[in-house]
């Protein structure tokens, strides 16, 4: 399994590190436009191999896409992150051009690749890759829900006073401060609905804290987060590499599923060797449906800013 990660910045390097540490890929290529940067990150990471016990070969490339040839999975993290006070949507002007150019270059050298889009605004960047590359829909996957769900579980565990491993939950909808739909009704502690343990008010607080998870970290760090984003991507790449058929909420092109059309937004999907193996159309309550529709309207509005 060969994986390319475009962008050797905070998120790209974290993705490469977690993929390597999990030791399921033979090769990871990191590519960046900044001279020597990807080579430096790759060398630094390779010098952790004997310490962390992995055999994945990590190499770096300054914008030379021939080095990425025949990648099974390509992860796009290139582009600018937000600063405190900004929304992800404000990044569209710069990131759309980068994602369009990068995805075309990747596919030129790896026509059979599966692409995972991370750059923000992620749902719109995923849609852009659909509109401009012609790759089949199962091979274009946006990463947002896996991260948002991890943050949801963190907040749930905090509210419950429980270990995170005892908690399960999922966030669907757009990867934006307003658009996320944490499914509190379906969240559990060891199979028991979380509503058995905490009040509606506390659960509402968990929901709100989850939705602004990225903004909270951006406020603390001065730029957006990277550890959990990198770990979320590595989990998705592992599911594809090992054909696990695990369910992740991912941004995918909807063609009538959940009553939505012509946009990419986070819904539960099965990940395996073909990328998105299927969309899991779970039953939503009326309130959840209307939150997802509102979220979709927000994503479509951002999509309309693309010059297609
Ligand atoms: N979908 C999600 O859940 C998340 C998305 N993000 C997004 O990921 C992106 C990257 O964030 P960070 O790594 O923190 O930013 P960063 O600034 O640390 O790294 C971005 C890298 O992209 C490189 N780059 C820019 N244009 C390029 C091009 N044309 N070709 C190759 N490389 C290029 C830059 O040189 C830089 O090294 C941002 O758009 C951020 O908003 C971040 C966290 C989570
Ligand atoms: O908050 C941001 O801008 C980066 C991101 O998407 C996240 O960490 O969820």
TrEMBL record:
<keyword id="KW-0816">Tricarboxylic acid cycle</keyword>
<comment type="function">
    <text>Catalyzes the reversible oxidation of malate to oxaloacetate.</text>
</comment>
<feature type="domain" description="Lactate/malate dehydrogenase N-terminal">
    <location>
        <begin position="1"/>
        <end position="142"/>
    </location>
</feature>
<keyword id="KW-0520">NAD</keyword>
<feature type="binding site">
    <location>
        <position position="151"/>
    </location>
    <ligand>
        <name>substrate</name>
    </ligand>
</feature>
<dbReference type="Pfam" id="PF02866">
    <property type="entry name" value="Ldh_1_C"/>
</dbReference>
<protein>
    <recommendedName>
        <fullName>Malate dehydrogenase</fullName>
        <ecNumber>1.1.1.37</ecNumber>
    </recommendedName>
</protein>
<dbReference type="InterPro" id="IPR001236">
    <property type="entry name" value="Lactate/malate_DH_N"/>
</dbReference>
<dbReference type="InterPro" id="IPR015955">
    <property type="entry name" value="Lactate_DH/Glyco_Ohase_4_C"/>
</dbReference>
<feature type="active site" description="Proton acceptor">
    <location>
        <position position="175"/>
    </location>
</feature>
<dbReference type="InterPro" id="IPR001557">
    <property type="entry name" value="L-lactate/malate_DH"/>
</dbReference>
<feature type="binding site">
    <location>
        <begin position="7"/>
        <end position="12"/>
    </location>
    <ligand>
        <name>NAD(+)</name>
    </ligand>
</feature>
<feature type="domain" description="Lactate/malate dehydrogenase C-terminal">
    <location>
        <begin position="147"/>
        <end position="297"/>
    </location>
</feature>
<dbReference type="InterPro" id="IPR022383">
    <property type="entry name" value="Lactate/malate_DH_C"/>
</dbReference>
<dbReference type="InterPro" id="IPR011275">
    <property type="entry name" value="Malate_DH_type3"/>
</dbReference>
<dbReference type="Pfam" id="PF00056">
    <property type="entry name" value="Ldh_1_N"/>
</dbReference>
<feature type="binding site">
    <location>
        <position position="120"/>
    </location>
    <ligand>
        <name>substrate</name>
    </ligand>
</feature>
<feature type="binding site">
    <location>
        <position position="95"/>
    </location>
    <ligand>
        <name>NAD(+)</name>
    </ligand>
</feature>
<feature type="binding site">
    <location>
        <begin position="118"/>
        <end position="120"/>
    </location>
    <ligand>
        <name>NAD(+)</name>
    </ligand>
</feature>
<keyword id="KW-0560">Oxidoreductase</keyword>
<feature type="binding site">
    <location>
        <position position="88"/>
    </location>
    <ligand>
        <name>substrate</name>
    </ligand>
</feature>
<dbReference type="InterPro" id="IPR036291">
    <property type="entry name" value="NAD(P)-bd_dom_sf"/>
</dbReference>
<feature type="binding site">
    <location>
        <position position="32"/>
    </location>
    <ligand>
        <name>NAD(+)</name>
    </ligand>
</feature>
<feature type="binding site">
    <location>
        <position position="82"/>
    </location>
    <ligand>
        <name>substrate</name>
    </ligand>
</feature>
<comment type="similarity">
    <text>Belongs to the LDH/MDH superfamily. MDH type 3 family.</text>
</comment>
<dbReference type="GO" id="GO:0030060">
    <property type="term" value="F:L-malate dehydrogenase (NAD+) activity"/>
</dbReference>
